[in-house]
């Protein structure tokens, strides 16, 4: 019985109709639950949607906890202790907590209910486990982890160096080092909001050089992920 439950709640196989239906239902519940977040005003309909969906999420959470030993291929109690601390289980828990009325009432006194309410956005991440395509992308990320971490280090180094340079070259335009970090990050992504910018010729030259470097750095993750995705698709 437990094994069958595990087969159903996991990503469906081609010949498992029950699991496929479960995935579709959960995807529908997740996305319909995100709709109320696009509105400022509460309504009876939205509250009803939230109550029903969170009840389903709680059942799903405990079913996955119940079958943790099958997930980790280990019948020891360690599996049940390990599961609540896994990334996806934490996402599940954080997406459930905002809808618990007692918790909401407790936080209203602190005027942080809106912050807690935004945790419901995390429910969109629950959909990741029900999509095979997203599972492939996650696997690509795992396989390309070392290369992506290297690019991350390169980007952080670029931001810090550029920030230090522009902070000393343009002291009048950048009042704090955080302003310089912000500018370097925007330059890295070549977005260019224009709220903070250099005014001297040297500062502008540094901006041009950093923009070209930013294009190269931003392009690296895209190439790594694309190559990994094509490799993963080819092995399926």
Automatic annotation (TrEMBL):
<dbReference type="Pfam" id="PF00520">
    <property type="entry name" value="Ion_trans"/>
</dbReference>
<dbReference type="GO" id="GO:0008076">
    <property type="term" value="C:voltage-gated potassium channel complex"/>
</dbReference>
<feature type="transmembrane region" description="Helical">
    <location>
        <begin position="83"/>
        <end position="103"/>
    </location>
</feature>
<dbReference type="InterPro" id="IPR005821">
    <property type="entry name" value="Ion_trans_dom"/>
</dbReference>
<keyword id="KW-0813">Transport</keyword>
<keyword id="KW-0407">Ion channel</keyword>
<feature type="transmembrane region" description="Helical">
    <location>
        <begin position="147"/>
        <end position="169"/>
    </location>
</feature>
<feature type="transmembrane region" description="Helical">
    <location>
        <begin position="181"/>
        <end position="200"/>
    </location>
</feature>
<keyword id="KW-0633">Potassium transport</keyword>
<keyword id="KW-0631">Potassium channel</keyword>
<keyword id="KW-0472">Membrane</keyword>
<keyword id="KW-1133">Transmembrane helix</keyword>
<protein>
    <submittedName>
        <fullName>Ion transporter</fullName>
    </submittedName>
</protein>
<keyword id="KW-0630">Potassium</keyword>
<feature type="domain" description="Ion transport">
    <location>
        <begin position="20"/>
        <end position="229"/>
    </location>
</feature>
<dbReference type="GO" id="GO:0001508">
    <property type="term" value="P:action potential"/>
</dbReference>
<dbReference type="GO" id="GO:0005249">
    <property type="term" value="F:voltage-gated potassium channel activity"/>
</dbReference>
<feature type="transmembrane region" description="Helical">
    <location>
        <begin position="45"/>
        <end position="63"/>
    </location>
</feature>
<dbReference type="InterPro" id="IPR028325">
    <property type="entry name" value="VG_K_chnl"/>
</dbReference>
<feature type="transmembrane region" description="Helical">
    <location>
        <begin position="21"/>
        <end position="39"/>
    </location>
</feature>
<keyword id="KW-0406">Ion transport</keyword>
<feature type="transmembrane region" description="Helical">
    <location>
        <begin position="212"/>
        <end position="230"/>
    </location>
</feature>
<keyword id="KW-0812">Transmembrane</keyword>
